[in-house]
Design a protein that fits this description.
Four copies of one chain form a homotetramer.
Chain A: E1 4-5, E2 10-15, E3 21-27, H1 37-47, E4 64-66, E5 70-71, E6 74-75, E7 80-85, H2 95-99, H3 107-114, H4 130-148, E8 153-161, E9 164-165, H5 175-179, H6 188-203, E10 210-217, H7 231-240, E11 245-250, H8 261-264, E12 268-271, E13 274-277, E14 285-286, E15 289-290, E16 295-301, E17 310-314, E18 320-324, H9 334-360
Antiparallel strand pairs in A: 1-2, 2-3, 3-7, 4-7, 5-6, 8-9, 8-10, 10-16, 11-16, 12-13, 14-15, 17-18
Chain lengths: 378, 378, 378, 378
């Protein structure tokens, strides 16, 4: 209840930042999908701290062990359990957190909700929890490729850091251009200014926020379950479940609210025998269901709450006091948020693919090619 | 699967815009809560078309009948079924929709997904489906008041229409000031310009979008279930499940991404024996859990897709064609979106209240008053 | 929470015996399945009271109305809501129930749990609630036939009433032989003794229990989701959720506990290119998964609690008192339990068929024919 | 999907008999409940093989490690992950299973369903999977004691092995008398005959089944969620989800079907200010809800499928062949089934306690004491 995500490809993450480790159980993975620990490690390495000069210097290898659910490098259809041991324990670095609530962190609300919290690091609210998500999503991506949409690409990128905005052309951006730089933006001109900004705020003991954009190409038509599990609704929930997120918009988003219907509507045209739209203000989703165009959404990340300046706060025995951040933290989470956004997008997509297969069978959707959507058996 | 919302206060809406009716079943409502049909009718009347000169002239009474789950005006603890008959059938008004997909509507994606659709009106994708949500939320609000938080107020309001923005002071805005005008904005100075804009776009056969803001006061500390069912994640999903929504942000939202941590963090201070924050960029939620401050979020609504101009589209036998909107539609959904946003917020809150009671008992949260959160029985 | 059944073919029943009506919402029905009200009415007529001289003389037509989810006699893929109005209100017949708890009924436990109950008839605990299940199962059977297993037969029958046992040969029993008599047993020799017994206990103001057996033929191999949602586990839950049930056994059941493994094991043999078992003590399920043999299970129904003799009980203000049954009740529920058992079996099967299609695709199972189970896309 | 159990106290077990290990994640455990690894180890030791001369000589220590969810020996309210490493790997003992399906085992159905199976031992269908259940239930029992019902006792016992039946008096049987002997029956006179029977069938390379009875004392009134999640329905599912089970009955069970209502009904009487029944044919549950009397149910276990005699079977390339059991197996699972039945009962109870607290608050039920059931806040 709370740590479980997905209806059919159901993941349960577990683990605190300090304790035996973190991990995930995936219940509902289709059988006979190729899977090894190396498939998972690739994405964990993109998420881990200490990977570049602009991320936290904590250096955690985050080595994944598959404990169950595979046999001879194929999934069995049974639950896949993945374990990553915690290594970099320095509880002493956190002793002040035992006695004071860090501003704009989860310390106070966890204490108020549960009457207890693991104050050694962020505990359950640590971004370390996302290891389980990223590991599960590595499996999800294998399933998508093996069973549903081999050409599907999930391409998240850093769109802005503070007020510095990248210019990304959704039509041409590539994973290579995004992953080629340590900020993970697809705009070569933005790389250096963004790195400079992160270094500057870090040197000031400060932090900065930003926006991750995400493009998904070659999405099958027909994903999404009206009325509540609309594709954009599940994407919004997935993204807002990531630490430090404050907003989500798809397609035209907030800017679209200033347009008229005449400006905003996406016309339909036939193109190579397929139904296409001539613009994409819908962001690839109409009526809660993917229409085959690129999915495009944006996620707002607030500045890291840990800063190296004294701040007003209250103690755990409820008196006013002051706290100055310590420890090794990202001054900007955006570069490491990219694989997290990718993970949550993959988890939403695979779940909807399985749900669509359950409801409507394997025929694929009616897209103008003459294939029929709906039920496989008719 | 798709039409069910909530973990404990679980609602299942049903119904197409044309057919026997629309409604909802609420499974999981606590017993002995006072409830009559009048409680539900109040909110349905705020949602219904034809209520003012700026909404669609369709005039549907939307009379609610409680079919089960109450006895002598109290809830029984068994499922509450509510039925609203469809009245204003004019299938002939929709005959062109049988043969053509309306741009930026759900016609094409429904056809592609299911291989079939009810083309008489929007079918399941019609905003008429939200009747079930609003009815269920009327019950949710009774439960919140009777069992959990008598003082809690959910105050959604129209924040902008097109480029016209209202100025709302969260500290002082009242339900009366919002509901006193037909646009449902809390800023008296914005009322007339907003009405004028809606009338103007309507006269041009056009439409316009906008933003609904939502303020929730007197929220108990401790609501939200990390890590996936964070309160803001469930709110985001709830809002993005409403028709025509394109974005959600909470607290500082997208604007906060341009701030540094030093500017953005909310300091804690003791006030009247309670832990308070001196600013509220968090929007009332920290670490996925309510902190007792006002919850503040914003929802983006795109311009209505139905416009009275000829648009390019494709036919249901997949040829390029043209379509001109017909029928009676809202040129701007914002005023009627206000009770829908309110409904979804109430449904999220009541569900998390029940979940918190299940997990941690009734003691209430540790808020600095000396009460303890966590488990009731210790 | 409590009134919802199924993971993918998810039904929510609602309604009390006295009130606006009873019904069901089916969320998760595949699209494009042929469905009319007549399909549902057939099974409701088999379930309804007053259908023969040995059932309760209450005469309720139980007319089903489909309120949503179909279009031109095909399912839409959206929720299907079904309403059956209550007709035979005679609250005065129940006034004594307001003040006294009926022995071995749900009156006391409902009052204790909820602090309130609808004392006019059985309220939510009435067998009238099963109308929603039977209606939903009529849809389930259409889905099974249209999408998964056209030849599948669910054949429940009365196996015993009191100490009178029918002799049924699973290999040859037919729906015609079962439905040709008002007791619904497949053994012609048992019909008259059973009818006589029911009439006799009724004339004495008494009641009698019995066992329903259920045979399911032509079951696809591969249904069931280890480890918790084993097919027999879901069948057991489904059956024990019916009113008046006290036991469930599959295959060899309790009798099998007295056997040795050598006697009990079902050998495998190839037959017409398919894997078959030479005996069927497993009852068609091995390791929680159907093996293609006939599924065979039995359900115990206790004698009807309402009897026309004075019994010791307590009043609703908690004093010892006495109560004599009144009203019109079945002296034996077995004949009407047959369609209820059929309904629950159909609901379990369709849900597992959808789940199997989600997990493993449409290829069908590996049964010795050379087809492969597992994932469709490999 | 399949390996997850419970609505609020939700457990996900994972693991094959051969592989990295087995374990469980518990999502939904209340915070601040005392918990250490020793609490879990006690029950794992009762379940483990090699514990006595009549269980399999496999000697697995089954050492539990708590990986997350506790802090300073209290639960945190976050997911609790438990890992037990596999130790006794002897894949060579199983090589024949690669090529042949063992009769009355899950080999064939797993292969048919998933298109793949881990043939080294039982894989996912191994009773080793129940380690996760027993570990989770150890936590459940701590929660029941700490938060809900300190006096509640779950007392399962071996009621019969083959045709040897124990005589147990539910009023007086104690955990001590049950656990004092290696068969785990509460009847001292049955111990020796049962042990002799097990040794005899084992010496013959054969196996034998039996029945586990389960008594639950001091159950709160009001547990169970009509109509589908009736307490007996959830117990039935829980028990039938255990390996080798073939039947479940509660209270009068199948024997009660031969009684008349007059014989069968449980009269109510006031006793010490509480509503009691003068007999208990209901088995402690009426209308799907606990009535405060002892819960009494029985579970049928078939004889172990592995026997040391040649049996007809088919090969994995679908030809008739022969197989003789090998390896070290229990000739009778009953003694080790006792803690498994206890575990599943505890998991059902704790889930319904949390659900009841969610729905009706903490007031406790109306039992004649004058306390009120229903909603806490009125």
């Amino acid at each position: 209840m709370g740590s479980t995500f997905g209806q059919l490809f159901q993941i349960s993450t577990w683990g605190e930042s300090h304790g035996g480790g973190v991990g995930v159980v995936v219940d509902g993975c289709p059988p006979r999908v190729p899977l090894t620990e190396a498939d998972i490690q690739i994405d964990l390495d993109r998420r881990r701290p200490g990977q570049s000069e602009i991320t936290t210097p904590r250096n955690e290898a985050d080595q994944a062990e598959i404990l169950s659910g595979t046999f001879e490098s194929l999934t069995l259809g049974s639950p896949i359990a993945i374990l990553v041991r915690n290594k970099d324990h320095r509880p002493e670095a956190y002793s002040e957190m035992r006695d004071k609530f860090r501003p704009s962190h989860a310390d106070y609300t966890y204490q108020a909700k549960y009457g207890i919290r693991n104050w050694q690091g962020g505990g359950r609210s640590s971004a370390r929890e996302t290891i389980g998500r990223v590991a599960a999503a590595a499996i999800a991506k294998k399933v998508i490729a093996a069973c549903f949409a081999p050409d599907l690409e999930i391409l998240p990128f850093v769109e802005s850091i503070g007020t510095i905005r990248a210019r990304i052309d959704p039509a041409t951006v590539t994973r290579e251009s995004i992953e080629s730089n340590i900020v993970r933006t697809g705009d070569p001109d933005a790389v250096e200014p963004m790195i400079d900004l992160i270094k500057q705020v870090r040197s000031e003991g400060n932090s900065v926020g930003g926006v991750v954009g995400c493009l998904i190409r070659n999405v099958p038509v027909g994903l999404g379950m009206p009325v509540f599990d609309r594709l954009e609704a599940d994407l919004a929930k997935a993204m807002l479940s990531l630490p430090a997120t404050k907003g989500f918009e798809i397609g035209s988003g907030f800017a679209g609210t200033e347009m008229t219907g005449r400006e905003h509507n996406d016309s339909f045209r036939m193109e190579d025998g397929r139904v296409r739209t001539t613009s994409n203000r819908s962001g690839g989703v109409q009526g809660g269901i993917s229409n085959g165009e690129d999915i495009l959404f944006r996620v707002a990340f607030k500045p890291t709450a840990t800063i190296m300046t004294a701040q007003d706060t209250v103690s755990t025995d409820y008196h006013d006091t002051e706290l100055k951040g310590r420890g090794r933290h990202d001054a900007c989470v955006l570069p490491r948020a990219v694989p997290m956004v990718e993970a949550m997008a993959a988890l939403v997509l695979v779940d909807h693919m399985l749900r669509q297969r359950a409801l409507c069978g394997n025929d694929g959707a009616e897209t103008g090619h003459g294939e029929k959507g709906g039920n496989a058996a008719r």
